[in-house]
Write a structure and sequence with these properties.
Layout: H1 2-13, H2 15-43, H3 52-59, H4 63-89, H5 96-124, H6 133-145, H7 150-174, H8 191-222, H9 231-239, H10 244-268
Helix pairs in contact: 1-4, 2-3, 2-4, 2-10, 3-5, 4-5, 6-7, 7-8, 8-9, 8-10, 9-10
Length: 271
Amino acid sequence: MNRITRTVARGEKTDTAQLLGRAGMACYALVHLILAWLAVRVAFGSGEQTDQKGALREVGSTVFGQVLLWVLASGLAAFGLWQFLMAATGYAWTSGGKRTRKRLGAAARGIVVLALGGTAFRLAAGEGGGGSSDQTQQEFTAKLLQLPAGPALVVAVAAIVLGVAVAAGVKGVKQTFLEDLDPSGLPGKTRRWVGWLGTTGYLAKAVVFAVTAFLLGYAGFRADPRQAGGLDASLKTLAAQPFGTVLLMMVALGLAAFGVYCLAAAWAHRR
């Protein structure tokens, strides 16, 4: 077991793994920048699909975009694998419970990013790539509701998503994400901007997660999977509120800020 751990650790620290991981994070940044653009379009009445799949479809909507979609898919796969390596041996600059939480977060992020990369590969190959985030969420909720104590399980999942929202908000406010960056890798004048971008981005993601948790919890209380929804439904729910256009524009700005932050993190992430 120790030999396996040492082997994984060496893999995580190699220049090749670092390069692929950073390139993948840049691809992850691009997805968030496109999501921000789609959110702006929804704010002004577009019916676009505003989830990760919608962003990937936007990339592949032109001939050049089809080539870019293959690059994006490969980058997301590399980023997902890098996150698993980080989960196995990374975050050596922290210790104790904080390191454990960061490694668990990396593992969860790896699963999400690899799934997104799989969708990108299917879209690049001309396949459907599965349903929207809303359809996936509703199907998942419907299966949970069929189980004994199904509504309670759905509400429990909603509470977990709400916890993720709170964690993202706290991370943004406290700027703990800066612990994972090497300050020497950033020009002096940009460090404050990176902190601001990260804070804005994490707060925007916290809002989206909170709305998703609300929709999921409401579906559990009503025992109706149609009330659940993913990122697409969350953004459109915001748009439907009083001053919804302003709210959605703020979230779009936050998603764009998170995308730019990811570019900086790809450049200056600790080894």
